[in-house]
Amino acid sequence: MTSEQTSIAPLSSVDPRAKLLVTLVAIIALTFADLAHLGATALLVVALAGTLIGLVLAHLLGVSAPKAVLQSALVLPFVIGIAVFAPLAQLSSWSLDAIGEAYALHWPLIFDILIKSFGATFLVVLVMRSMSIETFIHTLTRLKVPAIFIMLFTFLYRFTDLFREQIRIMRDAARSRAPYLHGWRLLAFYGRMSGNLFIRAYERGEQIHDAMLSRGYDGTLPQADKGGQEGRTLLSRK
Amino acid sequence: MHCDANAIEVTDLSFRYPDGTQALDSVSFLIEHGRRVALLGPNGAGKSTLISHLNGITLAQSGTVAIEDVPITDETVHEVRTRVGVVFQDPDNMLFMTNIGDDIAFGPLNMRLSADEVARRVDVVLEAMGISELRDKPGMHISYGQKKRAALAAVLAMEPAVLVLDEPTSNLDPRAKREMTDLVSGLDITLMIATHDMDLAWAMCDTALVLDEGRVVAHGPARQIMSDEDLMVSHGLEVPFAARKLV
Questions:
Q1: Is the whole-model pTM more than 0.80?
Q2: For domain B8-89+161-246, is the CATH number 3.40.50.300?
Q3: What is the pLDDT of residues A95-117, one digit of tens each?
Q4: Do A233 and B94 touch (CB under 8 A)?
């Protein structure tokens, strides 16, 4: 994720630790907010208020709101698949009447899940776009987050980066040979190439795994015992 | 390090990929400590497959690979990986941590060394490779030449007895290539260099091992083998420029 914070953003000078902690608190508050029992009007108000707060936060952090919204929207296909079936969890018996009654009574559950998922993702995207990945990892270290989690995040980030890199390579290759490929045709192209994309990313991941094995990686993640000394980086110190 | 032991001993090694490709076919050779071996051969000769056997990334289907007289098996593979360092061709595959310092520390930490020793090794190799200023930089955001050096540093920090380099100068500009050659030349270590750069092999290696279609087709003094135009050309290689001038 690319940092896009500018020095003129009102919250640019805020300590990254404060940003992460406030984000965490906001996500927890959002998670425990009882939206499932609100009516349609109240849900609409919540959604509008959330949108407004999000736009203000994006401005204060110097982050492009449309880009953050688009990036956060990536979570929706997965969440929608879960949310639409959420009222079924309240079923007392399996019959068409019972299903209809469950959706009539518990439809706010769908919006509860959607608002919370999208809202939490949006908050994470905002804070991540407001700082570099190096700053983020360094901040986690300063917050005394266990090194194992930081290392797992590092690996995850590396593999995500790998995936993005494969998409970029394939996109550039396609553009160079098909300059008029855009819109739905481009989307169809990506659809056809998605399998290939996964295979290429997997193979690249295998090469990285081999490089890890060759340096003694045995499935456990090593951590330096810093002996009480302040670690400037995750594994090495200076 | 066992100085009286052979650095690498490969005996009757064969390997077939699941698609049926016979990558290695009864490969046998012996490398003594301190040798600088050029691993030569056309594309598809089996060089990369052989390299992946040398520190147990791939285990032998038949035959044996021994490092300093220790055969590579499931039981010994972790120990062997501390003795044989492999620098893969693409440095991007080797730099997966947040910054170069952490990438270099990765190997020594896997050796369960103390934090002080890890830090010492990181400092030493960063200094030796001339990349101290890259310590806090992510591997993704440095030049290709710097990545190559960082990948080499990451392996040297493990202080291996045998260093295997896969195309160490590929895709480097002339200056970076010269710098990499100087760095590798200065190492007092058993070296195996897989390369298509015949001039590099001529300049740096005292022994040549030529593979073709998974078989060893020549093994001996580098200059003698690399000057043999018939041998080189028949296996998709060429005589180094320096050797041509001698003729």
A1: no
A2: yes
A3: 888 888 888 888 889 999 999 99
A4: no
